[in-house]
Amino acid sequence: MASRLLCFNKPYGVLSQFTPEGRWRGLKDFIDIPGVYVAGRLDADSEGLLLLTNDGKLQARISDPRYKMEKTYWVQVEGEPDEAALERLRKGVQLNDGPTLPARAQRMEAPANLWERDPPVRFRQSIPTSWLELVIREGRNRQVRRMTAAVGFPTLRLIRAAIGPYTLDGLVPGALRDAPLP
Question: Is the previous residue joined to 119 through a cis bond, with omega within 30 degrees of 0?
Fold first, then answer.
């Protein structure tokens, strides 16, 4: 069987597994390809790029933190992070399970062609929101959310835009495409 690598734009409310659980849907609602497995996870309340493959070695290379494959996130946060907050993210922040590796962090405009989220993100009239691009090489549980909270800017919306060279470009939520093998 030939190796395959798939890019999937995981919608909000979908687990990184084929089986649904509780109020969350599973990947089987979107993907009907036998023998493919998720390479890395994305929380149900996060959106964006998920890679799937039928190649166990490739799956390990993508998801194992030892390989430090960069993951790029677009993060909508509550408030407007200043340079000091960005610098803390760049140096790594202390979380309850230890310090994070340094991240690349910068402010960005809202992503172009951004789809509406269902349900929409909560907004408060008195508190502005802004977008960050955060690039990390780890993948701890809810790491990006915990990092932005640690510097005082809670995450409202989290979209994984890229894993290594693979991106969301041209993929609408729920869409799937074959990707070139590394």
Answer: yes
Distance between CA atoms of 160 and 135, rounded to whole angstroms?
A: 10
Beta strands in 41-86 (DSSP E): 47-53, 71-78
Among the ranges given (35-44, 87-96, 119-128, 145-154), the one the predictor scored with the smallest mean pLDDT: 119-128
Catalytic residue chosen out of the listed positions 32, 43, 64, 97: 43
Query: For residue 111, how many other CB atoms are within 10 A of its CB?
Result: 14
Quickly state the pLDDT bin for 53 (edges 50, 70, 90): very high
The tokens for 126 are 């008195």
Give pLDDT tens digits for 131-172.
999 999 988 889 999 999 999 999 999 999 999 999 999 999
Catalytic site residue 43?
yes
**What's the residue count for the chain?**
182
Q: What is the DSSP letter of 66?
A: G
